[in-house]
Write a structure and sequence with these properties.
Length: about 350
């Protein structure tokens, strides 16, 4: 399907433009972190794809109402962007994300010989050639220690988290919305993912668990920012549940009461009610800060990327980012961006 190359203005800080051989320009984010040379990672923006409004233009979600042919064309552009960074870039594996804590080990797909072309395909026209729709892979994190498949998570306000290791050839991608991040009694998607990640590192390097965590690198991608993410008291309570008193103060600081002097955040769930009981309060939640607290508690010290400032906010930067909260009510839907991480086979050390 022909898609005219879009005009790309000067990229804001942290964004890079990629010129393809057909003249098309893609805008994407490349993590600024000291990852080993065998780690390749990127985060897409909305600039450079084929989709019309409300998914304009580089929509990678096949579950948001966009035409399957256009999503396929946009995913082909993602593959081309990956290949520009790594000539032997693997195929991204898309999964059905459910705001849970399940971690998908991509090594099993390689080992068991499952067809990557069907992996994670959950759109209505998936596998139309044979008239069947394969069962989707359901997970909110993916992990691999082998070249061959790319860990991929789709987001449009939720927080993407990428993990790499200084010594071991292990990478992971995580989808952390507030439900998955909070989890149950302090055990959410980051806790589940890091446990699997550390186990994979230990199998390769034999490091003690604490050292394996200390040598882990985390990158936080764009998400809805604290000035825009208005939530109810139940969200705040979900992050406080199960915490000892000594740990609650840091979490409380990640929730700010909306100022009456400021207008409500665009497309907020609802306006703040009149002052009343605690369970009626509205709060502005800082997802990146909450993720940093969780990672630090798990022993991860090297955390890069999203610091909660305005340039990282998906809702506030419509030129570059899709936002479900901003667009769904106003336009009826929104596109999805992808966070991808994989192992560069040419740069990877011999298996440990």
């Amino acid at each position: 399907m022909p898609c005219p190359p879009p005009f790309i203005p000067i990229a804001p800080p942290g964004l890079h433009t990629l010129q393809l051989d057909d003249g098309r320009t893609l805008a994407l984010l490349r993590p600024d972190w000291p990852a080993p040379p065998w780690v390749r990672a990127l985060f897409t923006t909305r600039q450079g794809g084929c989709s019309p409004a409300p998914w304009d233009g580089w929509n990678l979600g096949d579950h948001v109402g966009d035409a399957p042919a256009r999503v396929a064309a946009n995913r082909a552009l993602l593959q081309r962007a990956m290949t520009a960074l790594d000539a032997r870039a693997p195929q991204p594996v898309f999964v059905q994300q459910v705001h849970g804590c399940d971690v998908l080990p991509l090594d099993a797909l390689l080992r068991d010989g499952l067809p990557p072309a069907g992996a994670g395909c959950n759109g209505p026209d998936c596998d139309a050639a044979v008239g069947q729709r394969p069962a989707p892979l359901v997970a909110d994190a993916a992990l691999t220690s082998q070249p061959g498949l790319a860990c991929t998570m789709l987001v449009a306000d939720c927080l993407p988290v990428l993990l790499a290791h200084r010594q071991a050839r292990v990478v992971a991608a995580i989808h952390a919305g507030w439900r998955g991040l909070a989890g149950q009694n302090g055990q959410g998607v980051l806790e589940h993912s890091l446990a699997r990640f550390v186990q994979a590192v230990q199998r390769r390097c034999g490091l003690p668990a604490a050292q394996a965590a200390r040598d882990t690198l985390a990158w936080l991608g764009p998400c809805i920012g604290p000035a825009a993410f208005e939530v109810g008291a139940e969200v705040r309570q979900a992050f406080l549940a199960g915490l000892p008193t000594s740990a609650q103060a840091a979490v409380v600081r990640c929730f700010a009461a909306p100022s009456p002097a400021l207008p409500p955040a665009p497309s907020a769930v609802q306006a703040s009610p009149a002052p009343g009981t605690a369970d009626q309060m509205r709060w502005h939640a800082n997802l990146p800060a909450l993720a940093r607290l969780r990672l630090q508690a798990l022993g991860v010290e090297a955390i890069y990327g999203n610091d909660g400032s305005a340039p990282w906010c998906t809702l506030g930067n419509a030129q570059w980012f899709f936002s479900h909260r901003r667009d769904a009510r106003r336009l009826g839907s929104s596109g999805r961006m992808a966070a991808c991480i994989w192992i560069d086979e040419a740069q990877a050390p011999l298996p440990q």
